[in-house]
Amino acid sequence: MQIFIAGSHTDIGKTSVSAALCYALGLDYFKLVQAGVPTDSQRIQSLSPKTKIFPNGITLQTPASPHIGMQKENVHYDGLQIPLPLSENLLVESAGGLFTPLDQQNCMIDFLGFSKLPCLLVGGYYLGGINHILLSIDALKTREIPLLGLIVSKDSNPQMDAFIESYASIKIAHFPQYHDLTSFQENAQKLKSQMLKSKMI
């Protein structure tokens, strides 16, 4: 299994969901572009210590959009040419949302389309959240990128679930707030069960 974790917005919970999937499904972890510290790989390591973590595709020190970090640090790369690690069980986590710049010319969604990996979209329920989620779903479908489903991070809302499922014909799973490593592991297993039950994976 190889999957790409994308977000409908920045700071939406992609890394926690990624850690949960790595823990529950035994996936290796790869961060496409890391901007700033502490790193997402460090968070994965703290939550899922047995996960194999590959070096970041690109590491930038500037905690900003990668195209800004590139300029400040005088770093040059073609984001579409970032090689994926050799792993049959790989989770690739993007940075920011689908249209967050990857380099000076491309966005995260461009790499996703180029790599042809199936996608799990992580979204959240907040004011404007449905708009961000539906725009992201539409963008993925327009580009014919395989969309496995939506994972709602933190708070769930049955009314919002019902609207999104009806409007976008998408499967939804939930990864609720956790308070310690034990509740993280329990929620990760629950997420796996939801995804298997809905045939998301």
Question: Can you offer a commentary on this structure?
Answer:
With 201 residues, the protein is an alpha/beta fold. It has a single domain, classed as Rossmann fold, CATH 3.40.50. The chain has 7 helices and 8 strands, in the order βαββαβαβαβαβαβα. The chain is globular.
Question: Secondary structure elements and their pairing?
Answer:
Blueprint: E1 2-7, H1 14-25, E2 28-31, E3 33-35, H2 40-47, E4 58-60, H3 66-73, E5 90-93, H4 108-115, E6 119-123, H5 129-142, E7 147-153, H6 158-168, E8 172-175, H7 181-197
Parallel strand pairs: 1-5, 1-6, 2-5, 3-4, 6-7, 7-8
Helix pairs in contact: 1-2, 1-7
User: Helix share of residues?
Assistant: 25-40%
Helical segment count = 7
Helix and strand element order: EHEEHEHEHEHEHEH
Gap between N and C termini: 9 Å
Total domains: 1
CATH architecture group name: 3-Layer(aba) Sandwich
